Each structure stands twice: as structure tokens, then as C-alpha cells.
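Sat 14:20. Reprocessing the chain from the morning session after the first attempt stalled halfway. Input below, unchanged.
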Amino acid sequence: MRIIGFIVVILALIGLWIGGWHYAADRLAIGVQDFKQNLGRSRQQIECENQRIEGFPFRIGIFCDRTFYSGERSGIAFEGGVLRSAAHFYQPGKAILEFESPAIVTLPEGAPIDVDWQSLRASLKVGFSGPEQFSIHGQDLMLSARNVEPGKAILPEFQFHMRRFDEDAVDTALTLNNFKPADAANGRLPVFSLSSVVRLDNIYDDLLKTKNLLGIAQTKGIGGEIQSFEFRPQSGGVLEVRGPVSISAAGRLSGKFQVSFSELEKLAQVISKMFPESEPFLAPIASVVPIFSKPSTDGRLTIPVTAKNGALSIGGIPIGTLPSLY
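Finished this time. C-alpha cells:
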């Protein structure tokens, strides 16, 4: 009798597990549909071709044969291949996503970009009040704009992280390692690395509702703090920026920054190649650097730069006006 009772208990537990998994799968499918509808209200569309829920018995996730996204306001579109996702049944609030190469990315007023990669994975952590963390990590990416010369850009590694901070702020971090633009081969653009850590204030609820950072910026502006921004050309020099920042709905930059750099001449050459419109600023900056800069222990020079609605100044001396950022 004890053996029979034990078997009955085991079968009952198995039945409960199977029923629980299928219930969770149904709830996940409903959640995905609600997510699509919410995106549609903000004029965004996402599609999952041959969508299915898999992973039984210990995992659960969404699988797509192809994925599609388009945002009417942002002008960004994405068309990719297989998407696999998985969350452990005992930890449903954390999911891992994996994307198979290749994809086509379209940016506002730009030619479609063909993107290939060796590895592209993302992770998402969701709490009771909404998403808490999001990360994406890519390796060995190759990008080429259609009908545009020269050839492919190469990005050995990139990372992007976003997490909720306090009630309505978001921390973001971006890393590009040894990015080789398509123009690097002919010397027009440099190979460079870039990293940034930026906090955005009073934005979490709006992001949760609209899923559109550019749309929020163009509607009400954005603000926060550049905790670290570092630009390292392979040819030499380092540029680092820190300080509070805001961008108006019209795309005008304001803030008070501490700008540190080394090898100014090399940096100026690189920046002028990347942004030819910046050349009018470079000569005034070079002329006031000896006056206002402070040397640091690592050999870098630091100057205070103020931006007010796009107008830049160093120590009260105007050096030029930046164009609208969007």
C-alpha cells in the first residue's frame, strides 16, 4: 500500500508540474500578445513568425523562425532570423534570448544595413513593477550598408546594459571595442573604442509606456548625468567627458562638463575626420586649453565646458554652437 501511495503522489506531482507548465505557457502567450498590442498603440509593430512556446519540462521560452520590428516614429526597422529564448521554470522573471545571424537594420533616412555576427545574446530581468535589467552582448559583427561604398564595418565586441535606478531613473552602459568603420581602410575614419555610463532621470515610466526613447526626447526632452564617456582612437589620444546633461525637445544640448584628454593634436585630427563640421570648434578649443586646463596625475588635461541650448563655452569664452542633435 505504501508503494502504491508513493506512486500516486509522484503521479500527482507530475500532473501538477505538467499542468503548471502549460498554464505558464498560456500566460506567456497572452503576455506576448498584450505586449504587441501595447506597441501598436505607440505606432510600433513586432512580429514573430511561427511563434511557439517551448522548453518543457524545466524551461519555458518563445521561439520564432523569423523576427520583425518597425517603429513609425523612430524610423527604425529590424528583420532577423531565428529567435530563441528561455527562462528557468523556477526563475521565470529572468530570460535569456539568442538571435541567429543575419539581420537587416534600417535607420531613419538611411540605407538598409546588412548585419552578420558570430554571437548575439540578450538577457532580461522583470520584477513585479516591470523590467529591472536588460543586457545585450554581441561578438564579431560585420555591418554593410546596401548600395553604399566602401565595404563592411567590423565590430569585434559590443555590450549594452540598462537597469532601473530608483523609482523613475535608468542607468545605461555602452561599450564598443576596436570598432573598425567601413572607411577605416582608406584612412577617412579611425579604428576606435568607446565606453559610456549615463543615467537618465524621470524616464522609466515613459519608457515602459512608449518603448521609444527618441520619441520621449522629441516630446519632452531628456536629462541626467554622464557618469563616464571615454573615446579612444587606435591612432592615439583619449577623450573623456563627465557631468550633468540635458537635451531639449528641439535637440539642443545643455550641461556642465569636465572634459579630459591626452594628445590633443591626434584627437583633433581624428575628430575632424569623423565630424568635418566640428573643425570650427577645434581651433578655439586649442587656443584656450593652456589657459583653463588642469593637469591630472595620469598626464591628461581637464577643462570645464559649458553648453547652453547648444552654445558651447570654456570659462565664459564662446567657442561655437552645436547643431540640433535630432
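Residues 1-146 form one domain.
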